[in-house]
Amino acid sequence: RLASLALQPAITPELVQGRVHLKCTYSPPPPEPPVQFRVLWSRLSSSGRREQIQQETTLQLFSYVEMDGANLRLGDTVFCTVTAFRRGSPEQQSLPEDSKGFYAGIKFLPESLEIAEDGKEHVLTVLSTVPIACPGQDDSCKITLQLSTEDLGKSSRVPGPPDIALSACQVDLLPGPCSGSGCAAARVAVTAVTDFAQDGNRVSRLRARPAAPGDALWRAYTPRDVEVTVRDLPTGNCYSFTDPHIITFDGWRYDSHKIGTFLLSRSESRAFEVHVRQWDCGGRRSATTCNCGVAAR
What we know:
By secondary structure, the protein is mainly β. It has one helix spanning 216-219, and strands at residues 10-16, 19-25, 35-44, 50-58, 62-66, 77-86, 89-93, 97-98, 102-103, 106-109, 112-116, 122-128, 143-153, 164-166, 170-173, 184-192, 202-210, 226-231, 239-241, 245-247, 253-255, 260-266, 273-280, 289-296. The protein folds into three domains: 10-104, Immunoglobulin-like, CATH 2.60.40; 106-231, Immunoglobulins (Immunoglobulin-like), CATH 2.60.40; 239-296, no CATH class. The chain is 1% helix and 49% strand. The strands form six sheets. Strands 3, 4, 6, 7, 8 and 9 form a six-stranded antiparallel β-sheet that branches. A five-stranded mixed β-sheet has the order 11-18-17-13-15, with no helix packed on it. Strands 10-12-16-14 form a four-stranded antiparallel β-sheet, with no helix packed on it. A hairpin with a 2-residue loop joins strand 6 (77-86) and strand 7. The radius of gyration is 31 Å and the shape is elongated. It comes from Calcarius ornatus (Chestnut-collared longspur). It holds the Pfam family Ig_VWDE.
């Protein structure tokens, strides 16, 4: 009968005496006869294999493991495997049941972005799946993440100037109660840089690095980068040339022979405008004006 137990182990994060722990809980067995549990904690190695961290035998319906920064670190994917057996009869045991993998660290939601050069903001959530603990600190308890960007170019091998802009250079993760979605979250807006160049679709990388954390658990941790694909859009053009002929963004053509300073173009969505100055360049025979100056913001 033990072979058919549905233990359904699950991992949740928890602070225990100010230190980050993971808790494995499982469903209770039938009341009789008395049952013990063997709980095996493991983590995924860089090669994708499971490495054993800790094992214990208990009567409790839960088991803890501490994230100590050595055996278990931020960035690890952790599993707990539970087997039930009768006390005094370890040979009569259930089939081992695995929990789902629990990623301990920083997640970006969404995990990747595809945006266009259209000026729209896209919100990226920075989520910590573990509690924020600051031993020895009180009001200033937080984890600050420094944000940076890098353009990877069309082929992800040719670095260039940043193709994305962020609403902030850093975000703070503040302590709070853990829920199903995580333990701490912050948001940053990402916008594609309108570069007025037909440079094709480009890939940029967004990095987050903990800045001088007080908790030793965070000091050697590097969250995974986020890749942002920027879709190139055609750029509009307008012209003012010779004496002067003007072609607007939508292709309307006309001439302007007035003398003075004029507003040539202004954006309704951002701080961008162009002024032109026209002067008399036709001499005595004809009234002709030419561009003699330009100012752009």
